[in-house]
Design brief:
The structure is a homodimer of 857-residue chains.
Chain A: E1 13-15, H1 24-27, H2 29-39, E2 47-50, H3 59-63, E3 74-79, E4 90-94, H4 101-127, H5 133-147, H6 157-173, H7 183-200, H8 202-207, E5 217-222, E6 233-240, E7 247-255, H9 261-264, E8 270-271, H10 279-293, E9 297-304, E10 307-315, H11 320-332, H12 338-344, H13 351-354, E11 357-358, E12 366-369, E13 371-374, E14 377-383, H14 386-394, E15 399-403, H15 411-416, E16 419-422, H16 430-438, E17 442-444, E18 450-452, E19 457-459, E20 465-467, E21 471-475, E22 480-483, E23 488-489, H17 495-507, E24 511-515, H18 519-527, E25 533-537, H19 548-556, H20 560-585, E26 590-593, H21 607-617, H22 621-631, H23 643-648, H24 650-671, E27 678-681, H25 687-708, E28 715-720, H26 723-727, H27 729-733, E29 738-741, H28 743-751, H29 755-767, H30 784-798, E30 803-806, H31 814-822, E31 827-830, H32 835-856
Parallel strand pairs in A: 14-15, 15-16, 16-17, 24-25, 24-31, 25-26, 26-27, 27-28, 28-29, 29-30, 30-31
Antiparallel strand pairs in A: 1-2, 2-5, 3-4, 3-5, 6-7, 6-9, 7-8, 9-10, 11-23, 12-22, 13-17, 14-21, 18-19, 19-20, 21-22
């Protein structure tokens, strides 16, 4: 073979031939799995794997593939390392030429050889020539029609020879290289062509988010023949159910077929069952494949004259639930250790356990697409206002709330709706954050939808109109908005899921808390076994009906005295809410953040609403307008919020501190649990802010102690949300007990990028690779992460026992959780619905980090 | 003296007695200056200074104060170190008692002793008892009235003795300690009481921003007697004119007086002139005092029987102009080196040289107070709109533009107005920044003014109403808004000022550039000898009439093609502006920043204006509204601005890059100066942004080179405005030539604090000491400063020759400039009107830093 040059040192590895096995990183996973399977005793036809690059001399290797008394038939397949493993061209049936034909005739008879010849041409045309398989299938279909036959197995030798001539003509017509006359040249041609075809598909890989430049190895393997005489055929099987994870072998096969025909061919495949003649062999091969892969397995097999051969095997791609069950079962069966089971499950897959999801087989009629802001799917009647959502909920009818964007006034509607879709906003817009907190499926920034609130119409990009009452579906798992109702799969929190969670809790180092503001949040947090509350945003307690009025009265107060009168109305409300919260958490830690948002967020928007407010409060519209104008800000995110409010209006934080202490005293007395509230000061940028407000809190504590004759222990901490606070964390840490990193705001300020405004260009930025990832979704380790590390180092240098954690959206993101583990944080806190994800991700982080340290040591 | 305990090691220092001199840090400046003057041969009565703390035994010291043939008379004065030196109680005339009285009678006669006795009582009552001097003055006035005499010198011995009895009664009535019978007890009482009175005035010092807890030393000195027989009296003098700085001795004195009577007494003092009998001695003392202080001097003196004595001396407190002239003259006279002259002038004083200021003696009728946002003062007719300001300017009438706050639409009005006042906004609000750039006096955040634009009325806090056309005055030097026209002092850029600037340019290391966008800016920058433009904000070129239309067309474009059509109209405009700029700068470096503000800033506000725009552009109002709504942002500061615009709409930055290159080619060809533009990419937060846009700029450069057959050299740099960019400066630096720190935005983002919204609580924060200083005014060294240092270190590690500078508002702030010197920055850039301040501050920074290094070495 003159084309093959002898290159020293190229590592060709044998499959089923002894010696070093193929390496997934070098020869691709397909080759590695085959090599391992053969070594484990599975019936794998022998072969060898050629690493990416120039093709070495392979004569010696070929010599080892001979099977006694049978002409040599070869397949060549691409085998790519890593993620780019789906598309892999192949050329089958190499070996048939005029010289070897007599030997094949002896084996297969004239019709068998004719069939092999036309298959050889098709495989060459597709694998080397890049011709679509349909071209050959149409020709086959024409031949069947002309012969008046239903099935290719009915074609006789002459008809098959005519078909082969047609196939050769197709190859010529498409300007593809003709099939070489000598089998050695067929092999050389395939070895040369397959890498070229692989690299030609770079764009397709890139479009799927895979590595376009991935190299490719080649597998040369002796073929076994599914079109041989006797019990012969080809099929696929899997050792467990891919949807449920249940351990049960299933498969399909087609007699007298080869390659992918059992999946893609014109004939209907049969199920593998007791009748098929090779079920026991397949069962045995399946068990051996699982042992070789240490995972549930998918198999491609061929039966040649009654003998089962495994041509390919890989880990089964199961559903989210299947993945969990399989991992837990494998550990229970002793195939893998528990740590490995924990690592097998991508935490994000747990969403499917926590929310209803759309059945993967259900048809989808998409009318718009946005960002998958809050997982799960929901169908319901379209509503255009918070009020309509509430009215619908009151009648027991599920609704989908559609808004341009949401504001705090929509929160009650979001509670009532079963799903939410907004036309504007990014992953951390108001709608997205609130929906995740509520566990409500939500799609935001669906900018191809036109929402005409005046006309009461939602227009799809394709012109279809949906009015209030029409049913639509939102898929918060992928960002789709769909017409009509769609089949759902309901969540499942017991069984394998519960077992996996138990193991995760045993394995993880960091605490996992929930961000929870309402009784509903707390219920979910407890249901998902959060160890405490890491962020209770007290302001959310004021948005409810009956409370917002007192809040607005407080905001519109002209003097400190008026403000205190209004605050006196809010005190019992806040105290009751907190008492219920402390009681529900039964002595687990609760971190309460003092009022954070700018006061104007509590006022209604628009002149009409403000005028109504003035009437309701019996004050002049001028006063209300003036106060609203006085509170308006150019950049509310960078305005008078957080501790700036507490310093400007100390009576507000005094009321809140009092509510916390009184509630803790009462809840502690009622339940007997020790309640030790943790009070968090938001948006600090200078040490002095923390000092002033810590002194205020201590003073209120002393007052409550004097009044009640008893007092709880408490801790005061600071939320690190500004870059300056991160840099000055050493200073700040001295006087307080904990630092909680508000990574949302820290990200906004580090990038100079508002989460609410980022949506309009974040997709472009990601598409253009300007940002590797959305920093509001996964922590920006290089920038924001460095601020966290600086802060942690400086805080601990001043106060070694200070508690450190994060409570931003990143607290539920696995990559960010790994960062927190590496930084040695004490806890993470996330939305209640992400607590299970965080528990698993924290466990994985502990395991990965321990392995890394072992590796380094 | 039993009250005085002997404490070993207490450092009493002598004045005019040889031995170690008093130390300003220990004994106070007053004592130190006196000691130095005595040592230099000035006629200073001998004495000694007691450091703060317990009073030591002083008998030995007292013994050294005896004057032969004359009874001992003593004064005790407080002498405070440092800044807290104004209020300093004293007790005079200690020494007269029943035992020493005969000796005094021998010297002064009965009337003289009676006069001394009543003076002794008054001084004791005020200095020890803390009684207001008026109490005694009223009694004196009553006595004169009763005696029918005009002047205390006319009172006879009996009348003076009666007055002394009245004075003793006042002391008794006020429950003050009575004057002790023995002079030793008088001294002990004064030594004990004065520190108590000093510490009792802590609150008063705090209210003046001085150190409330400052310790106090005491000076005990032999008294010379201005009420002695012969040519006797007391007065004050100064060696140079405090307003102009001119070298000319002047003074006032009062015969037969002592202490501060020449300044505060009931009699009218005389000028010191050739007739007074001690002019030559005073002239000589003045020259000696200047030599001792190495500065212009203020003197307090007493003449006793024809002999001049200097009782106190200190550096003259001169006006801003006087300070400059004195420093330059002293250096020219060889009294101080040039470096010292440069350090003598607080750079902020130069404002008085650069802008008209209100005459310090003019009456001020204040109607409101805000922040001193842009220095200088202006009077003019009140106008309420940019149009009215322009109309007024067209008629040649100075106007003061009053607005709630300003927006880019007001810029033409701000150009036309002679002064600006806004009701809202902080030191870096739009109005403040633009006004400083224009050199227009401006007061912002004058929140006690009520501006009713509908009624056309500006209401003062006291209820007065000012309508359009009424004349008001704004004092941008202190934030006052005044009724009517006020007397001004005009600026003066030659003479001593010019000399000082020359010396500063010789001394400084860093380059000083100006932030300049318009031809006017460039004129001012050149007039003030900026070495280049450090920040040319290209967007300001688009706000002018005739340009904003094309800009809006570009913004409203639906497609990239429409956008390019609009940009084609803007290209020649931008190119012409830049060509003029390059020509005017004659080859000096010019740093051009690509478009930075969010696009919505270029659209008008309000429905009516948008409707008018739609009509003018002949497109539907719906389209305009929809586009405006689409561009609206929650937090514009953190929105789609800076390089995010350049990445989203590359055609905009392409147009700008082309304009820069074409303008540079043309200007270079016309003038023969080498024009090497520096192109600055704004608001970078990730390396990739800089890479993408540098590639775009390089591509346009290649196109221009190809089209024109010639091309200029250019540099590309990045504006570091986000904390993340500062942290990633190493990465970012690799591909570019310079980093310019935009410290305004960096401060906003480090603190999480919008400059536009900070105004409403910054004053409280400063008053409560939450922030030491306004971080938008003086660089926050601890937080933002650390980001600058991290960025500088990382950038230089990657690219040692990278140029570093700042172009935020801090570029004109002396403390921030010192920081830049220490950080080793290459240049600073500031508003044109602050260039002289920056030049001087940079020189001082170089000198101070060199001295610090010498001190360390």
């Amino acid at each position: 073979m003159t084309l093959l040059s002898d290159i020293a040192g190229t590592e060709v590895a044998g499959i089923g031939l002894g010696g070093p096995l193929p390496d997934a990183d070098v020869h691709g996973e397909k080759a590695a799995w085959l090599g391992a399977a053969a070594a484990a005793g599975l019936p794998v036809p022998p072969g060898f794997a050629i690493p990416p690059g120039a093709v070495p001399a392979v004569d010696d290797w070929l010599a080892r593939l001979d099977a006694p008394g049978r002409p040599l038939l070869l397949s060549v397949r691409a085998s790519a390392p890593g993620a780019a493993r789906d598309f892999a061209p192949a050329v089958l049936n190499i070996g048939l030429d005029s010289e070897t034909r007599p030997a094949f005739e002896d084996w297969l008879g004239p019709r068998g050889v004719a069939d092999l010849a036309r298959r050889q041409l098709q495989s060459w045309g597709c694998g080397v020539g890049g011709i679509h398989a349909e071209e050959f299938e149409y020709a086959l279909f024409d031949a069947l029609k002309a012969a008046g036959k239903d099935d290719e197995t009915e074609l006789d030798a002459a008809e098959l020879e005519a078909l082969a001539e047609t196939f050769a003509a197709i190859i010529a017509d498409e300007d593809a290289p003709p099939l070489p006359a000598r089998w050695q040249d067929q092999l050389a041609g395939a070895l040369e062509a397959l890498p070229e075809r692989w690299h030609g598909a770079a764009r397709r890989r890139a479009a799927r988010g895979e590595d376009a430049e991935a190299p490719v190895a080649l597998i040369v393997q002796r073929m076994v023949l599914g079109v041989a005489p006797g019990l012969s055929g080809a099929g696929v099987a899997q050792t467990r159910n891919e949807a449920s994870g249940e351990r049960r072998l299933s498969g399909r096969w087609l007699p007298g077929a080869q390659g992918e025909e059992a999946l893609l061919g014109l004939r209907t495949p049969r199920l593998v069952d007791g009748e098929c003649g090779f079920a026991a062999a397949l069962e045995e091969a399946g068990a051996a494949a699982e042992a070789a892969l240490t995972d549930a397995a998918s198999l491609e097999f061929t039966v040649e004259d009654g003998t089962l051969w495994v041509l390919a095997l890989r880990p089964l791609r199961a559903s989210a639930r299947g993945t969990v069950r399989i991992a837990v079962d494998l550990a229970a069966e002793g195939v893998i250790p528990r740590d490995e089971a924990l690592l097998r499950v991508d935490p994000r897959l747990l969403d499917e356990h926590l929310h209803p999801t759309i059945d993967r087989n259900a048809p989808r009629d998409r009318i718009g697409r946005g960002l998958a802001a809050s997982p799960g799917a929901a169908s319901g009647q379209l509503v255009f206002s918070a009020e309509a959502a509430e009215a619908s909920a009151a009648r027991g009818i599920p609704s989908i709330l559609a808004r341009i964007e949401t504001s705090p006034e929509d929160i009650r509607g979001m509670h009532a709706a079963t799903g939410v879709v907004t036309v504007r906003g990014g992953m951390t817009s108001h709608a997205a954050v609130v929906a995740r907190g509520l566990g409500t499926p939500c799609v935001v920034g669906a900018s191809d939808l036109l929402l005409d609130l005046d006309a009461g119409v939602l227009k799809a990009g394709d012109g279809r109109r949906f009015e209030a009452g029409n049913v639509i579906t939102v898929d918060g798992g992928n960002g789709d908005v769909l017409a009509g109702r769609v089949e759902m799969v309901q969540p499942e929190l017991t069984g394998a899921f519960a077992t996996l969670m138990d193991w995760a809790d045993d394995a993880r180092r960091m605490g996992v808390r929930a961000n929870a503001d309402t009784p509903l949040d707390v219920d979910v947090a407890r249901q998902f076994r959060a160890e405490g509350i890491g962020l209770c945003r007290t302001e959310h307690m004021f948005f409810e009906a009956g409370r917002i009025a007192a809040m607005r009265e407080m905001i519109l107060a002209e003097s400190s005295a008026d403000r205190q009168a209004a605050l006196a109305k809010l005190l019992p409300v806040q105290r009751e809410d907190l008492r219920a919260l402390f009681r529900a958490m039964e002595g687990r830690p609760v971190m309460v953040r003092l009022l954070d948002p700018p006061l104007h967020e509590f006022l209604p928007h628009g002149q009409a609403e403000l005028a109504e407010l003035a009437r309701a409060m019996d004050i002049s519209i001028d006063t209300v307008l003036k106060r609203a104008e006085g509170l308006a800000e150019f950049n509310p995110m960078l305005g008078k919020r957080g501790c700036r409010i507490g310093i400007a209006y100390p009576e507000i934080y005094e009321m809140q501190a009092r509510a916390i202490f009184e509630a803790a005293c009462e809840a502690g007395a009622e339940t007997g649990d020790g309640v030790r509230p943790e009070i968090m000061i938001p948006l600090v940028s200078a040490k002095r802010e923390a000092e002033v407000l810590t002194a205020l809190i201590d003073r209120v504590a002393a007052e409550v102690r004097a009044e009640r004759g008893r007092m709880v222990e408490y801790d005061v901490g600071v939320m690190i949300e500004t870059p300056r606070a991160a840099l000055r964390a050493g200073d700040i840490a001295r006087g307080i007990s904990f630092l909680s990193f508000g990574t949302n705001d820290l990200t906004q300020m580090a990038y100079g990028l508002s989460r609410d405004d980022a949506g309009r260009f974040m997709r472009d930025y990601l598409a253009l690779d300007v940002f590797d990832h959305d920093p509001f979704h996964t922590l920006d380790v290089d920038g924001v992460g460095e601020l966290l590390l600086i802060a942690a180092r400086r805080a601990r240098a001043e106060k070694p026992d200070i508690s450190l954690g994060i409570c931003g959206e990143h607290g539920g993101d696995p990559a960010s959780i790994l960062f927190c583990e590496r930084a040695g944080f004490d806890y993470i806190s996330c939305s209640p619905y992400r607590v299970p994800i965080a528990r698993l991700a924290a466990a994985q982080a502990t395991i990965v980090e321990a392995r890394r340290k072992e590796g380094a040591a």
